[in-house]
Amino acid sequence: MTDDTHTDTLRTPIVAVLGHVDHGKTSLLDEIRGSAVSEGEAGAITQHIGATDIPLSTISTMAGELVNPDDFDLPGLLFIDTPGHHSFSTLRARGGALADIAVLVVDVNDGFQPQTEEAIDILRRTGTPFVVAANKVDTTPGWNPQEGEPIQKSLEAQSERAESMLNEKLYEIIGQLSDAGFSADLYWRVQDFQKNIGVVPVSALTAEGIPDLLAVLMGLSQRFMKEEMAIDVFGPGEGTVLEVKDERGFGATIDTVVYDGVVRNGDTIVVGGQNQPIVTEVRALLQPRPLEEIRTEKKFEKVAEVGAAAGVKIAAPDLDDAMAGAPVRVVRDRPLEDVIEEVKAELAEIEVDTAEDGVVIKADTLGSLEAMANALREAEVPILRAEVGDIAPRDIAVAETANQDEHKAILGFNVDLLTNAERELESADVKLFTNDVIYQLIEDYETYVEERQRAQQETVLDKVVRPARFRLLPDHTFRQNDPAVVGVEVISGTLQNNRNVGYFEGNEFERVGGLSGIQKQGDDVDEARAGERVSIAIDGPTVGRDIEEGDTLWTELPEKHAKILEQELKEEITADEREALAGYLETRRKRDPFWGK
């Protein structure tokens, strides 16, 4: 443990920072760290693996009168540097989100963007309390920056025009939160933070509003999360894998956030793996060296133990198959089997339901895999296989086994295509979709399926026999037989060449012959539409014996074609073709009610 033993047993609350790509998540975190350093508090800030620990004393220096350290018994705040909000959804602790509280960063000029919506969705699903940091207030035209000041002090220094322009943008964001189902207001107007979301105007560039953000985070944690912060300081450590990384000299290591208990060098741990839980022994616990010692050769220093909450790199054998987002458990004095079962149970919560047929999905972390599976379920797209990791040749082999052609697809979120898989893909009948916005990925796939179905319908339509009803015109017999050549008028439907034709005798269809030519104003054509008059050649009948002028004839529809037209392509054919089809089916079904069904 560090020297400042955690007050009784309250651990540091874990804060995640989420938001759209360029809305300033990283610069906000950098500014918080930087301000702390510039306050001469450098020694107090501990850089963990994947996290930054800012103790209460530093927060109170930065936040000035907004934070009185005597009001708090939490040790400070631990900011986790999530590479993106999808990994945040992965980071869970016993079924809940790993982060106790979140900051949603929104650019005041851009408002909500696709990834903001996704982040909100994840916060809603995990039930994580959050505040909104409305960033880039310094870009307001005519802004007069007040470095590091609380936002209300800073607003006093602004012209009326600048303040009203900023207010307009802030209320737009409050409106967008309301559209998303959250009641929100500027944080100093919020009475009950459990019912309303506080919006904190900030600038990552000038540090204005950062005192407020820290004060709100501390206040919320202190008021609503004290029970969750109570941990067994000496119990067996529990944590979540942030990332799996190869380190020179150590092999595969796991960057882990420990949220309960303590992890010691030499502990036996169980880690969630791609196929089954991994049981291994901690060989080294690594922390980044403090800033002033970065000159030394080694990036990390070994520590004997780490207590919650903290980020640490764990080096241990056999971690190659560990998964981002998976649980890490120290066994200590419990039966190993129980701990393995615990890890399995936690992984089962994240397991994706797969079907006999469907698409293959790959994602960078368990959480993003789960988020993708949820979104696909809503879009009613079945999943054949779901895995964490880059796209490998076997994924392509699995995708090729899908029964339906449109399912021969791989949807990859935030993952790479391995070189050997790239070669496989060239020769495989598999379509690859990749994107780093989940809903965009699914939209791309859905567009592809729709276009494909449309193309298929068009192909089927080209091959299917179209319905037609036509009448032999009086005084238009140009030849009686071999073939009979007559003038006709198409009453409804499309008369196509090379089709069999006939008439109904009662409810029986009598075939009289096949069309061998259609001429329109002396030119050969393939088809004639309703309302047109054309001359046709019919192989088979003799006019005056088998057919008469004035007779109504029909194109003969094969039963299979009639069924396709009625059940699948009804919307694709014209109104008069539908009319001809209805007439043909009605007569046929008087004799056989199930014909073409």
If you had to describe this structure to a student in words, what would you say it looks like?
The chain has 597 residues and is of the alpha+beta class. Helix content is 31%, strand content 30%. It is built from 15 helices and 32 strands. It has an eight-stranded mixed beta sheet with strand order 2-3-4-1-7-8-10-9, with helices on both faces. Strand 27 and strand 28 form a beta hairpin. Helix 1 packs across helix 2 and helix 11 packs parallel to helix 12. The longest helix is centred in the last third of the chain and has 26 residues. The radius of gyration is 35 Å and the shape is elongated. The N terminus is likely disordered.
State the separation between the terminal residues, measured CA to CA. Answer: 76 Å
> Strand pairing plus helix content: what structural class?
alpha+beta
Helix fraction by DSSP (H/I, runs of at least 4) = 25-40%
Globular, elongated, flat, extended or rod-shaped: what is the shape? Answer: elongated
Function: Function in general translation initiation by promoting the binding of the formylmethionine-tRNA to ribosomes. Seems to function along with eIF-2.
Binding site for GTP: 19-26, 81-85, 135-138
Domain Tr-type G: 10-226
GO molecular function, one term: GTP binding
